[in-house]
Specification:
This protein is mainly beta. It has one domain: Sandwich (Immunoglobulin-like), CATH 2.60.40. 0% of the residues lie in helices and 42% in strands. It contains no helices and six strands. The strands form two sheets. The chain has a three-stranded antiparallel beta sheet, with no helix packed on it. The chain has a three-stranded antiparallel beta sheet with strand order 2-3-4, with no helix packed on it. Strand 2 and strand 3 form a beta hairpin. The protein starts with a strand and ends with a strand.
Length: 66
């Protein structure tokens, strides 16, 4: 299962971000960040998960293949 870990140095909590996942795209916005990226695989957005670590200031997005 692929995962992405963008650096989020200005983010203090997950609620500061807007995350949208579709079968072939990832959109992430908040705290001056804006990412609209095509994904190399088709994913199942209903089974995707996001976890933010305030300590390491990292957002981990886990996206299972469809």
């Amino acid at each position: 299962m692929p995962s992405l870990q963008p650096c989020a140095s200005q983010v203090r909590q997950l609620s500061q971000l807007s995350l949208e996942l579709a079968e072939k795209t990832l959109r992430l916005e908040g705290c001056g960040y804006k990412l609209d990226a095509p994904l190399p695989l088709r994913i199942d957005p209903d089974r995707a998960a996001a976890k933010f670590s305030a300590k390491s200031q990292r957002l981990k997005i886990t996206v299972p293949e469809a």
